[in-house]
Protein: Phosphoesterase RecJ-like protein
Amino acid sequence: MLSISELKSLLATPQKIVITTHHKPDGDAMGSSLGLYAYLIQLGHHVKVITPTDYPYFLHWLPNNSDVIIYTDQPDQSAALVADAAIIFCLDFNTLSRINELGELVRASDAYKIMIDHHLEPEDFDDYRHWNINACAAAQLVYDFIVNELKDGAMMNKDIATCLYTGIMTDSGSFRFPSATSAVYRIGAELIDLGAEHWKIHQLVYDNATENRLRFLGHCLSNKLEILREFNTAIISVTKEELREYNVATGDTEGIVNYALSVNGIRLAAFIIERTDKVKLSLRSTGDFPANEICKKYFNGGGHRNAAGGASDKNLEDTRNEFKSILTEYKTQLLQ
Structure:
């Protein structure tokens, strides 16, 4: 593993650098990636952000978004950049399977691999790791990496602050999750002092829905919400046909599971969605209920205790029935 002094030495001269993050990137993935990008380009590095897939339109306003390369759109260029990189920063993921086909390119690269992440059980592919499962967001760790690890807080500017505030805001549930400690609030305040327009960022992320997205949300809540009071659990499941009917785009399903969790008395919520290749599950829970344990044990996934995801090779109905059957194992915890 690299030491921080060795990493500082590497970053002291211009390098070819790739920054990548998990597939279907969210606000934290893009905020942390573009925040780090805005820092590194100030140092004279040649930097490219490569995402494995597309990401929500309501994140396209982020500073330097126009410089992002999407692997599925430009696989050859992406592969060449990874092969030519001296350093690859891996943000907001801890196993190379989270970046799909890009993962094997990163694994094969001779570049130094730097992980900045807050998920459980990291894979051992990195040469330097800035990792803390108690951090509320990867963006918080990027802030800590620049300010406290590299001792380069003087390079923080409005673009960096805007991106990192976006990542922290989205992954902390607008600063309302338990992970939003007083230290996180202080970081947020500093980012605002640096120029992050917190009111505008919130508006661009959360008050920026298409008509299709709102109508799809209404359909999910009116017609697809299933409440299992005997388990204090709520389920929303949608088919491929429903996605087509409402012309659902990347990002349109984000956050829907939280509406199910907001029902009075619900401790566990599942959003189960039929995709072209697999059935995907997104779980949210309250208190100490281990949503990540269910995803890891039964659905080839994982995540945080209260926010996790997984997938199934079964059809939608069988996946939903399997999920329901699992609830009996956790009934005592769910009814506490």
